[in-house]
Amino acid sequence: MKQKAPSLLLPSLLLRDVQEASVRISGKIHHTPLLYSTTLSKLSGNDIYLKCENLQKTGSFKARGALNAVALLTPNERAQGVVTGSSGNHGQALAYAAREFGVRAVVVMPEDASLAKRQACEAYGGTILLCGTTAEARLAKAAELVANEGYVLVHPFDDPGIIAGQGTLSLEVVADLPDVDCIVAPVGGGGLLGGVSLAMKESNPRVRVIGVEPSVGARLRHSWQLGTVTELGDDAWSPSVADGLRARRPGKLPYALSRAYVDDLVTVTESEIAAALRLILERVKLVVEPSGAVSVAAALAGQLGCSGKKVVCVLSGGNVELAKLVTLGAL
Ligand SMILES: *Cc1c(COP(=O)(O)O)cnc(C)c1O
Fold first, then answer.
1. What pLDDT band is residue 9 in, cutting at 50, 70 and 90?
2. Any residues with CB less than 8 A from the CB of 322 and at least 6 apart, and which?
3. Which of 291, 298, 322 is nearest to 312 (CA)?
4. Topology of 62-153 in CATH?
5. Which of 57, 62, 201, 310 is flagged as catalytic?
6. Where do the domains of the chain lie?
7. What HEC string does the chain produce?
8. DSSP assignment of 239-299, as one string?
9. Whose Cα sits closest to atom 1 in ligand 1?
10. Whose alpha carbon is nearest atom 14 of ligand 1?
């Protein structure tokens, strides 16, 4: 879906916020490699460069935003500690970031969270609280900790500090590949795409920015179509294998940023995601999680609307259990 209407909302984040975030978190994150893939280039008809956030600290780009958000807390807030209701990569990233700044972190997880996820979070020094099995139950628990014990809630995507941190990825791409033509990133709540698109377009307006959603949950496209942030109903949503891309609605700030800075939104099917994941494992020799493979899936499915261009696909994360890859048919 192409962007039609010009932006009506002026997003409140600036390139300077991303540049300052980059300085703030440098030394605590990796400047991740940008790898050219001959195989993916041949198969897709573009020159494909992979931005390897699967090799980032904590195994996903979310370390960028979490570090920036924690660094931005006041001394008082740092003394109170941080909390989040996300069981996945944001939880791990927040635990890691909090420990880097000597701040307490509580991650509210579902009672059925895998042992691997709990252990990863604990290894970064986070305190785990198990609560229910739904996102609502976790959010309610987190809200309780905020109200009763003074913890600061750090939202996984609808937060300016988080978004500015995610955007630092684009500054690295511009430095490593100054003549980049196009950048492709997955969309969950939209924090990644919001930050990436802002930093990329304000650095070089000539670069096309494309967001990718699972066709079983295209929340940002749905909101674009209706012209306002809108939740997907049960008819338009089912849980994607890309478990980092299951939000039912985009964040408000990510939505506004996407209207201002994103050129195009495309979707990929569940089998396209699994096939891309398998190809990345077998041919590129990189471990990515399903959410991290959707940008490559879009390129391979011919969804980018260009050929012969220098395209950066963001491999957003690599946190996946081998058993999961087996059930996906990727192993
Ligand atoms: C969180 C996440 C995403 C989606 O990021 P949003 O900011 O929610 O859009 C994509 N890939 C991975 C691996 C993630 O952890």
1. low
2. 331
3. 298
4. Rossmann fold (3.40.50)
5. 62
6. 15-60+160-327, 62-153
7. CECCCCCCCCCCCCHHHHHHHHHHHECCECCCCEEEEHHHHHHHCCEEEEEEHHHCHHHECHHHHHHHHHHCCCHHHHHHCEEECCCCHHHHHHHHHHHHCCCCEEEEECCCCCHHHHHHHHHCCCEEEECCCCHHHHHHHHHHHHHHHCCEECCCCCCHHHHHHHHHHHHHHHHHCCCCCEEEEECCCCHHHHHHHHHHHHHCCCCEEEEEEEHHHCHHHHHHHHCCCCCCCHHHCCCCCCCCCCCCCCCHHHHHHHHHHCCEEEEECHHHHHHHHHHHHHHHCCCCCHHHHHHHHHHHCCCCCCCCCEEEEEECECCCCHHHHHHCCCC
8. --S-TTS--SS--HHHHHHHHHH--EEEEE-HHHHHHHHHHIIIII-----GGGGHHHHHH
9. 244
10. 244
**Ligand 1 centroid from CA 239, angstroms:** 14
In the CATH hierarchy, which fold is given to the domain comprising 15-60+160-327? Answer: Rossmann fold (3.40.50)
Q: What is the pLDDT of residues 214-259, one digit of tens each?
A: 999 999 999 999 999 999 999 999 999 999 999 999 999 999 999 9
Ligand 1 atom closest to residue 318's alpha carbon, by position in its atom list: 13
**Per-residue confidence at 10, pLDDT binned at 50, 70, 90?**
low
Of residues 214, 194, 192, the one with CA closest to residue 277 = 214
Q: What average pLDDT is seen over the chain?
A: 94
Task: For ligand 1, atom 7, name the residue with the nearest CA.
Answer: 191
Specify the DSSP class assigned to residue 26. B
Indicate whether 322 pLDDT > 70. yes
Structural tokens at position 238? 């089912």
CA distance 158 to 298: 25
User: Tokens 């390897």 label which residue?
Assistant: 52
CA atoms of 304 and 278, how far apart (whole Å): 20
